[in-house]
Write a structure and sequence with these properties.
This protein is an all-alpha fold. The protein has 6 helices and no strands. The radius of gyration is 50 Å and the shape is elongated.
């Protein structure tokens, strides 16, 4: 517990105050009322001139703040417009590259959109926005090797049409006439039989 006794020892020691030199200076120099009043008038005069100057500068400070705020909001608005324009440009480039990929893939792929969906479209555009068609062709060939089932089927000859059972005779011989008179006669015959 030596720590507790140490603060007590410090409290017992006399402390020097900062007012001691001022008190000595005040005792040496007698109070001069006229000089004190002159100092007070001078300080008041300086304070008044500073207040007047502040009143003159306050409208200018407000205007400067308004201009700064207007410029800041203008900069923010321009920054937002720039961001939106960059997004539109990036979207247009992605669309152009996707179109180029699909066009080049249409010769070998059954569904060219498959190739456009798998490839990294941003990799085919340089900093100037030029599309590298040779790189696209190389990647399409590599993709077709990895996924041959995406390729266009080989044409082996002319396609035969699929049979349509609704065309031609049904093979049962009970064909109805398409003549309107025959149809009306059949309806009348059924109506008379029913009564």
């Amino acid at each position: 517990m030596p720590e507790e006794t140490q603060p007590e020892q410090q409290a017992d020691e006399p402390q020097e105050t900062d007012t001691a030199p001022e008190a000595e200076a005040a005792e040496e120099e007698p109070f001069d009322r006229a000089r004190a009043e002159a100092k007070i008038k001078k300080a008041n005069s300086e304070a008044k001139s500073l207040r007047d100057r502040l009143k003159e500068l306050e409208p200018l400070a407000r205007k400067a703040k308004e201009l700064e705020d207007a410029q800041k909001s203008e900069q923010e608005r321009l920054a937002e417009q720039l961001t939106a324009a960059e997004e539109r440009a990036a979207k247009a480039v992605r669309t152009a590259v996707a179109s180029k990929v699909e066009a080049l893939a249409s010769a070998d792929f059954a569904d060219p959109e498959d190739a456009a969906g798998v490839l990294d479209l941003a990799a085919y555009v340089d900093g100037d926005g030029v599309i590298d068609a040779d790189a696209i062709r190389a990647d399409l060939a590599a993709l077709l090797k990895r996924k041959p089932h995406w390729g266009r089927p080989a044409d082996t000859g002319p396609r035969r049409p699929a049979p349509d059972r609704t065309q031609g005779s049904s093979g049962n011989g009970n064909r109805t006439s398409s003549d309107p008179g025959d149809i009306f006669a059949g309806l009348m015959h059924q109506a008379l039989k029913g009564h």
